């Protein structure tokens, strides 16, 4: 498993493009019938991708749970949020089966021993995007279609940031230990997410950009507000944002992204925002 040890804001100021990408960018999430996992020591969050084609794939395929987590199975002391960003598929969690259409979300609670992924059609495989956080207790495994998500329209066409924040795994929708996840959809002509930018010292965040058409890219902004850097991101790539970093982006087209947060603070609006002209 790819392990990322956390980097601090002082050293990051001197990182080259390559060092910045090696530390924070997550690429290659979808390899047929594999589980691709990146363990970050920032809040011990694990980002995973699974694209089952011809096989029924177990969540711990290729992962040595005892060596990496010191647990007997993946969700022994973890919770996980899963979105399907590909063709139709199914997830089986301790015998319960969930049909997962495009953009459907599933929260699976701590203590779930067996989790399997399958695609309905190997030619149009499901692509599961997942983020897992350490958990101290069990709640309820819950299927959340986009209609059940709490919707927050924000931004304006005039400032190229008109978008809808869909809160799926969120205290208003269901209980979790520390994980919250959602999906932000930008309108055509809007390219900026999370502008005005913010940080939240009390929790970290991971963004995964998708629906980035063709050769387009997203310039993902990170760093301390007065020491910003950017990472150019392609479709279906994710990026780790430590608590000290802004996480904001501008695409060469509109796009969609999934955000995931972990930390003790679950108050969505508890952010330190800044005016765009206060940043450097
Ligand atoms: O802490 C909250 C997260 O950064 C995102 O929900 C922000 C976002 O989706 C947006 O403004 O476009
Ligand atoms: Zn944020």
Automatic annotation (TrEMBL):
Entry-linked InterPro entries: KduI, KduI/IolB_isomerase, KduI_N, RmlC-like_jellyroll, RmlC_Cupin_sf
Catalytic EC class: isomerase
Keyword entries, A-Z: Isomerase, Metal-binding, Zinc
SUPFAM superfamilies listed in its UniProt record: RmlC-like cupins
Catalytic activity as recorded in UniProt: 5-dehydro-4-deoxy-D-glucuronate = 3-deoxy-D-glycero-2,5-hexodiulosonate
Bound cofactor: record note: Binds 1 zinc ion per subunit.
Cofactor: Zn(2+)
Keyword Isomerase: yes
PANTHER family cross-referenced by the UniProt entry: 4-DEOXY-L-THREO-5-HEXOSULOSE-URONATE KETOL-ISOMERASE (PTHR38461:SF1)
Family, similarity comment: Belongs to the KduI family.
HAMAP family named among the record's database cross-references: KduI (MF_00687)
Protein name as it appears in the record: 4-deoxy-L-threo-5-hexosulose-uronate ketol-isomerase
Protein's organism: Enterocloster alcoholdehydrogenati
Gene encoding the protein: kduI
